[in-house]
Each structure stands twice: as C-alpha cells, then as structure tokens.
Design a protein that fits this description.
Blueprint lengths: L10 H14 L3 H8 L3 H11 L4 H6 L3 H34 L6
Length: 102
C-alpha cells in the first residue's frame, strides 16, 4: 500500500481549523470530513494549542451547578464538625465504657 504524501498546514491554517471546530462543536471525525485533517493530527494540534477537549468542557460548570456546589459545601461544612464529635464520642464510649459529657 502506497503512502499518501504528507500535507503541511501553516500555523494560521491550523488556528483557523481549531477555531472553526470549537465554534461549530465539531468532533474529530467531523473535522476529518470537513477539512481532511486526520483525528490524530487534530488531537495533536488541539493538545499543543492548550485548548480543552470535551472532558475539559464538561468539567466547567454552569452558574447553577456552581451555586448548588457552593450550597452543598456550606451545609457539609456546618454539619461535619458535629458528625465528627458524635463519632469520636461513640468510639470513646465503646473503648472506655462510660458516657463522656460533650
């Protein structure tokens, strides 16, 4: 099987393809269909450019997610000290057999 001749892309062309892929939400196979760039090459360019992939986009949370996360963290922060005190008291009572006053 004969090798295909390698195509070279300028830095400007790479940037345009990456920008278009991001703006249009294209997947690697979509980029291959539209621009003729193999998925491996596309992923390599994206990694070198520092652009986040799908996982990176999923990791970013919406403001509602951030609000909910903040509220849950605050509630846990208020409850945790009491839970820890209760567990320590239970363990000490089990070890020493008498009720500690807390």
């Amino acid at each position: 099987m004969a090798k295909r001749k390698r195509k070279r892309y300028s830095a400007a062309m790479k940037a345009r393809i990456l920008a278009a892929a991001k703006a249009q939400g294209l997947t690697a196979p979509d980029v291959k269909k539209k621009f003729g760039v193999t998925p491996v090459t596309y992923y390599s360019w994206r990694k070198k450019s520092g652009a986040p992939g799908r996982r990176g986009r999923r990791a970013s949370t919406s403001s509602l997610d951030q609000q909910l996360r903040s509220q849950v963290n605050a509630r846990i922060g208020r409850l945790l000290p009491e839970i820890i005190r209760s567990e320590i008291d239970s363990q000490l009572n089990a070890l020493f057999g008498k009720k500690r006053k807390g």
